[in-house]
Amino acid sequence: MQQETSAIWLALEMVLTGEHDLIEIVGLSLQVSLTATTLACAIGLPVGALLAILRFPGRGPLLVLVNALMGLPPVVVGLLVYLALSRSGPLGFLGLLYTPSAMIIAQTILIAPIVAALSRQVLEDLHGEYADQFRSFGLGPIQTISALLWDGRYALLTVALAGFGRAVAEVGAVIIVGGNIDHLTRVMTTAIALETSKGNLALALALGIVLLSLALIVNALVYGLRLTATRAAYA
Length: 235
Description:
- The chain is mainly α and 235 residues long.
- It contains ten helices and no strands.
- The chain has a single domain, classed as MetI-like fold, CATH 1.10.3720.
- It is found in: Cell membrane.
């Protein structure tokens, strides 16, 4: 018990003093997850918007597929990306395996379907509310999508935050394609797993504190955005 207590105090000291290895790992985690979230939004928001307003043959099965992809097993995604980026894979010539870029690719694949599915629901609800007005104004698909994206901006920011939360907490895919290499591809989740297995509880706990703090911040931002959206709706 004394060892655990000492580890907790040392972990708090590391967080408060900004210990170098801790800052490096947290910085890489944020860089990878924020980049992946940005790319996932660039892919998922247009896909979600098109699925929300367009009606075409095969839309139903496509919706089922997008919703199913929300539950992609991270280790399977990591394995597929690994096979694609390995030396014998089709993208092996890029030399991206065991780099932050490979981790970004894996996280993007994981969270893009989440962004697409959630944004589709948000925008479809808005489109149903304003469809008659859009038709009366004679708006085309691009103009309709632009109007929906602007009107649903707060809800879509919530979707983006949900994607970021999923990305920053992911471990299975990034450890496969990143390799958990010290000072190169070690992020918070993979470092916690490694340091715990090594018995370095202080660093693992410090990273856990930061990860939990990020989760609280993301949830607080989501709650704040929902309040803002509600007030804007009744303004």
